[in-house]
Amino acid sequence: MPDLNTIYTKLLTAYGPLHWWPAETPFEVAIGALLTQNTNWKNVEIAIDNLRREQALTPQAIAALPRQELEQLIRPSGFFRQKAERLQQLIEYLQSAHNGTLENLLNQPLEVARLELLQLKGIGPETADSILLYAGNLPSFVVDAYTMRLFERLGSLIGNETYEQVRDLFMSRLPADPERYNEYHALIVEHCKRFCRKRPLCEQCPLQTNCRYANPQARQDP
DNA sequence: GGCCAGGACACCA
DNA sequence: TGGTGTCATGGC
Question: What is the CA A179 to chain-centroid distance, rounded?
């Protein structure tokens, strides 16, 4: 089973530093994290561009929008009704508990901020960790479907682990460095978009010597 | 025209 | 606790 640091080095060598998250403010990161749930990032960009055009990328501006207007602006990101509701509920919580700013929530110990986010409807573990890491620069490793898929193929996971188990695995084997967590998750996504889809494209894959899908020997020897 | 995407949640057995 | 249905759009 390949070492997690070895895989990181291979991915970094293959793709270079990616410097996520593509956003101008921490709150914009949180918007993107919510909107990208089970959605192609290109559709999220369309929705965020709509919000930017309406100067609606702040908690105050979104809170002031009528629900139906917000729904139409974020409609390209899919699931727009529930995402509009969840976005405004997040802002309501920030206003009630943190003077309306995400920064105040994030300026707490990691696990305190994480539990607060997880209490909110529509913010599950991946969305919470994305906000903590990419908006708050806090060392919380982000696990997503790509992470599960890739590291199952690499033999690091069985495939039935819970989110928290996988997060704990990465955080126990990597230094608690937000920059490292930031790049690692971004590299996993970039890699999987290219090679690690449900129909894998193994010919040019930089991890093919480690992967069960590309390497029959690795497949036989998990 | 089907498949897929940087999930989360309610519901049920 | 684990499996399943629902939410919805747009690119490929």
Answer: 14
Task: Kindly report the CATH number that applies to the domain delimited by A4-18+142-220.
Answer: 1.10.1670.10
Task: Note the pLDDT tens digit of each residue in A137-160.
Answer: 999 999 999 999 999 999 999 989
- Specify the CATH number of the domain A26-135: 1.10.340.30
Nucleotide nearest to A146 (CA to C1'): B6
CB A70 within 8 A of CB A53: no
The amino acid present at A212, given as its one-letter code, is R
Is the pLDDT assigned to residue A197 strictly greater than 80?
no
Q: What is the 3-state secondary structure (H, E, C) of A120-175?
A: CCCCCHHHHHHHHHHHCCCCCCCCCHHHHHHHHHCCCCCCCCCHHHHHHHHHHHCC
Domains in chain A: boundaries: 4-18+142-220, 26-135
User: Which nucleotides of chain B have an atom under 7 angstroms from any protein CB?
Assistant: 3-10
Q: Is the CB of A75 under 7 A from strand C?
A: yes
Nucleotides of C strand lying within 7 Å of any protein CB atom? 2, 7-11
